[in-house]
Amino acid sequence: MSSRRLTALKVQQWMKDWDKVDFDTKELRRKPDPYFYLFTISAGYLRALSGIYRRTTEGGLLRSADLSIQRRHDEERSRKIREFIKYGYPWSELNAQKRASGEFDDLRKPGWLPTAIVVNILKKGDVRRGKSVPDAALIKVRDSNNGSATIELPSSFTTGDWALNHDEVPPIEVIDGQHRLWAFEERLKSDFELPVVAFHGLDISWQAYLFWSINITPKRINASLAFDLYPLLRTEDWLERFEGHSVYRETRSQELVESLWSHPGSPWFHHINMLGETGLPEKMVSQAAWVRSLMASYVKSYEGKRISIGGLFGSRMGERKDVLGWSRAQQSAFLILMGQKFSATLRGYKGDWAQSIRKGTQIKVTDKDPAFLGPHTLLNTDQGIRALLHVTNDLCFVQASELNLSEWITDQDAGAIDEAAVTTALRSLEAQPVNSFLEEIANQLVSYDWRTSAAPSLSEDERHNKLVFRGSGGYKELRSQLLQHLLTLQDSLSDFAANLMEILGYRE
User: Fold this and answer.
1) Is 13 exposed, middle or buried (0-12, 13-18, 19+ CB in 10 A)?
2) CA-CA distance, 154 to 156, in Å (whole number)?
3) What is 394-437 written as a DSSP string?
4) Which among 172, 164, 180 is positioned nearest to 60, based on CA atoms?
5) Entry pTM
6) Which residues pair with 172 in a beta bridge?
7) Peptide bond before 370: cis, by omega within 30 degrees of 0?
C-alpha cells in the first residue's frame, strides 16, 4: 500500500431506533452514513490535510480558523502535549533546572497517544463558508466487500509540507483532537502515527454534537466553556431545550455587562448599577436589566419561530448559517465600540432634544453627557438600553455577510473582563468595515428624541406620547419607533430599517 493509500477498517454502527431521529438538511443535520472508518496516518500528514498551520491572520481567514467548525487553539495546551510526547510523564512536568540536574533521568517515559483523533472527511460538494474542497484536494474513500476500505489521499499530496492556499477548504475537519495535532512540529518525527476515527461527509451540526458528547457529557466540563470551544453549539436546538444551554446566554451576558462596567474605554464605565442598590446619587440601569437586554438582543438565538432575526453572539446567520466564533474579548470589544460611536456622536450633536436636557441638568457635559447618562434620557433607562442593543444588533445581523464579520479574527482567546485583550480587540475592530457602519448607525440614531416623559422641557402632548414607553410594552414600542425614525430619514439605512420592520411585523 503506497503512502497515498491508507487501509481502513469500516465500522458499522447504527441502530433502528436512530431512524426516528429528526434529520434535517436545512439545519445542517442531514442523515449520516451508518458507519465510520478506523485507520492510522502520520501526524504531519494529518496536520497538512486538516489545514492546521501556524496561526496567522495574514492574507485572510484560514479555513482551519473557521471557528464554527473547529475549536479555537490554546497554544499552552498543545505545548504541554508536545512535551509529554517527547519526554513522557512526569519528566514533561519538570522545570529546566531539574531536567538538567540528571537526578531525574529515570523519570523519562514514552509519550504514547493511543486515543483516536476524530475527524470528518469532506465529500465533493460539501460547502464551508460558501466554498468546497478543490477537486485536486479531495480524499476518496473506496469501500470493499470484506469490511475494509481504502482511503486515497489527494493526487497532489506528496509530503507533510503539502498545503492549500489560505482561502481554500482543506479535505479534513478535526472534530476532536486538534490540540494533539498542533503539538507536532517539524522537529518531531514525521513518522509518528496517530489513530483516526473518520466520518465521511458528516454535517457540521452532527460534528458539534459529537464534540459535546465526547468532551462535555462524560467529563462534566463546564457547559458554558463548551460554547466557546465550539461556537456552533450556541445555536443547536437540541441544546436549546436542555437546561445547560441557558448557561451560555446568561453567564455570557453577565460577563459582558461586567466588562462594560469595568473597562476604562467603555462609555458605561462605572455607570451600571452592578449590585442593584437603591438611593444612588446617580441614575443607573441595573446589571439585571442589562443582562436581560443582552439576552434579548446580542446573545439571543432567534426572535421567534417565524422571525429570523437572531443575536450576533448567539445565532446562525445568512444563507450559509454561519456562527461567529468570536471570543468573549471580541464580543465585549464590539459592544464597547458600538457604545463609543454612539456616545461620541451624541456628544457632538446639538439638536433640540439633547440641548434641552443639557440645559436642565447640573451634570457638566465635559464630565458625563446628560443626554447620554443623565436622569432624563431614555438612553439611561432599561427600555432605552434594550432598544439601542436591539437596533444595533439587528442592523449588523442582517448585514453580517456584507460587513465580513466572520473574517474578524484575533490571536487571543481571552475573557470579556481581560482588559488588555479587550483593548487589543478594540484596536483590531476599528480597522474592520463594521467600524464605519456603527458610526453610520450612530449618526442617524442620535437625531431621535431620546427624552423621557419626566424631561422638564416637554410639552404636555410630548409628555403623553413618551408615556407609551413605560412597562414591558415599552421595549417593542421604542424599538419600532427607532426603526421608523431610520426609515423616515430616507438615508443609507432606510432600506435596512424597512426590511427589519417587515421581518418583525411592525408594518401593516
Assistant:
1) exposed
2) 5
3) HHHHHTTTTTTGGG---S----TT-HHHHHHHHHHHTTSHHHHH
4) 164
5) 0.69
6) 121
7) no
